C-alpha cells in the first residue's frame, strides 16, 4: 500500500481539486487543527477548492474571506493560458456556483465572503488568524506588510509555490520578515511553507503531532527545534 493510497483513504477529495500535493495538505490540516483559526483569508482563491478542502477537515467552521482577480483567468498571456483549466471561474457567480455544488455534496458548513478586489483595497475589521497566499501581487512586500498589520497574535501564513523554480520572490519576501523579527518559518513542505509570529507554536510538540501522522510523510525532520520540513524535498540552513 503506498503513501498516496493512505492519504486518499483518510482525506478523500469529495470532488474538490486543491492545487496542492497530498503531503502538503495533510501537514496544513495538522497545523490548522492545532491552531483552530477563526478568521481565514485566501488571496488567489481560484475555484475555492483549497479553502473548501481544508474547511472539510477542520475541527471548527471558521469564516472564510476569499479574494480573486479575474484578470488572470481572462488573460491573453499564452504562458498563463496554458496553465488555466478550461472550467476556471471567470466571475464571482462561477465561484459561488462551485461552492454551492460542493456544499450539496459534502454538507460541511462553509461560511464565506468573496471579493473581487486587491487585498490592499479591502477594509478589514477583524484580525486575521490564517492567510493563504496563492497568487502574485504588484507589490508583494507592501501586501505582506498590510496583512501583518491585520493579523492576530496566533496568525499563520501559508504561502504556495515557494520553491526557487516557481515563485522565488514569495519565499524571499517572507524571509525578509523573518530577518526583521516579525515572523518565523515553522514548516516547509513540497511546494508550500508556513510562517507564524515568533514563538506562537511549540515546535517540538508540533513535531510530535507530525510523528503521529508519520504514515503520510516519508521522511521529515525538525531542525534545531525550529522548523519542520519534509526531508526528501527540502534542504537549507537558517542562520
Ligand atoms: C493557483 S490559482 C489558485 C488556486 C487555489 N488557491 C487552489 O489552491 O485551489 C491562483 C489564482 O490567483 C488569482 N490571482 C492572481 N493575482 C491575484 C491577486 N493579486 N489577488 C487575488 N487573486 C489573484 C488568479 O486569478 C488565480 O485564480
From the structure above, extract its key features:
239 residues, alpha/beta, Rossmann fold, nine-stranded mixed beta sheet, 8 helices, 9 strands, binds S-adenosylmethionine
Chain-wise SSE layout:
Layout: H1 3-10, H2 22-35, E1 39-43, H3 49-56, E2 63-67, H4 78-81, H5 92-106, E3 111-115, E4 128-133, H6 140-149, E5 151-160, H7 168-179, E6 184-188, E7 192-196, H8 203-212, E8 220-223, E9 227-230
Parallel strand pairs: 1-2, 1-4, 2-3, 4-5, 6-9
Antiparallel strand pairs: 5-7, 6-7, 8-9
The chain binds S-adenosylmethionine (SAM).
The site of S-adenosylmethionine (SAM) has 18 residues, from helix 3.
Structure description:
- The chain is α/β, with parallel strands linked by helices and 239 residues long.
- The protein has one domain: Rossmann fold (3-Layer(aba) Sandwich), CATH 3.40.50.
- It contains 8 helices and 9 strands.
- A 9-stranded mixed beta sheet has the order 3-2-1-4-5-7-6-9-8, with helices on both faces.
- The longest helix has 15 residues.
- The C terminus is likely disordered.
- Bound molecules: S-adenosylmethionine.
Short note summarizing the structure:
This protein is an alpha/beta fold and 239 residues long. It is built from eight helices and nine strands.
Which fold name corresponds to the CATH topology? Rossmann fold
Q: In order across it, which strands form the biggest sheet?
A: 3-2-1-4-5-7-6-9-8
**Global shape:** globular
Q: The biggest beta sheet, please?
A: 9 strands, mixed
Low-pLDDT regions:
233-239
Q: Structural class, from secondary structure content?
A: alpha/beta
| Total number of domains | 1
Distance between the termini: 39 Å
Q: Order of SSEs, N→C?
A: HHEHEHHEEHEHEEHEE
Number of helices: 8
Overall mean pLDDT: 87
CATH superfamily: Vaccinia Virus protein VP39
Q: What CATH first level would be assigned?
A: Alpha Beta
The total of beta strands comes to 9
Bound molecules: S-adenosylmethionine
CATH architecture: 3-Layer(aba) Sandwich
Helical residues, percent: 25-40%
Strand-residue proportion:
15-25%
Q: What Rg is obtained from the alpha carbons, in whole angstroms?
A: 17 Å
Amino acid at each position: 500500500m503506498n503513501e498516496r493510497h493512505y492519504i486518499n483513504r483518510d482525506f478523500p477529495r469529495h470532488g474538490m481539486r486543491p492545487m496542492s500535493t497530498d503531503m502538503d495538505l495533510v501537514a496544513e490540516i495538522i497545523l490548522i487543527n492545532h491552531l483552530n483559526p477563526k478568521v481565514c483569508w485566501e488571496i488567489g482563491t481560484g475555484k475555492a477548492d483549497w479553502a473548501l478542502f481544508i474547511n472539510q477537515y477542520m475541527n471548527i467552521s471558521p469564516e472564510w474571506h476569499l479574494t480573486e482577480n479575474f484578470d488572470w483567468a481572462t488573460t491573453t498571456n499564452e504562458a498563463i493560458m496554458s496553465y488555466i483549466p478550461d472550467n476556471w471561474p471567470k466571475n464571482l457567480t462561477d465561484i459561488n456556483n462551485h461552492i454551492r455544488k460542493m456544499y450539496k455534496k459534502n454538507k460541511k458548513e462553509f461560511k464565506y465572503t468573496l471579493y473581487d478586489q486587491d487585498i490592499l483595497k479591502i477594509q478589514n475589521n477583524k484580525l486575521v488568524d490564517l492567510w493563504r497566499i496563492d497568487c502574485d501581487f504588484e507589490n508583494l512586500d507592501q501586501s505582506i506588510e498590510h496583512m501583518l498589520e491585520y493579523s492576530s497574535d496566533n496568525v499563520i501564513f501559508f504561502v504556495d509555490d515557494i520553491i526557487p523554480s516557481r515563485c522565488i520572490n514569495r519565499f524571499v519576501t517572507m524571509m525578509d520578515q523573518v530577518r526583521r523579527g516579525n515572523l518565523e518559518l515553522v514548516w516547509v513542505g513540497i511546494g508550500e511553507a508556513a510562517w507564524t509570529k515568533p514563538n506562537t507554536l511549540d515546535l517540538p510538540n508540533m513535531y510530535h503531532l507530525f510523528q503521529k501522522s508519520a504514515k503520510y510523510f516519508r521522511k521529515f525532520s525538525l531542525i534545531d527545534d525550529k522548523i519542520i520540513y519534509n526531508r526528501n524535498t527540502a534542504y537549507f540552513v537558517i542562520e
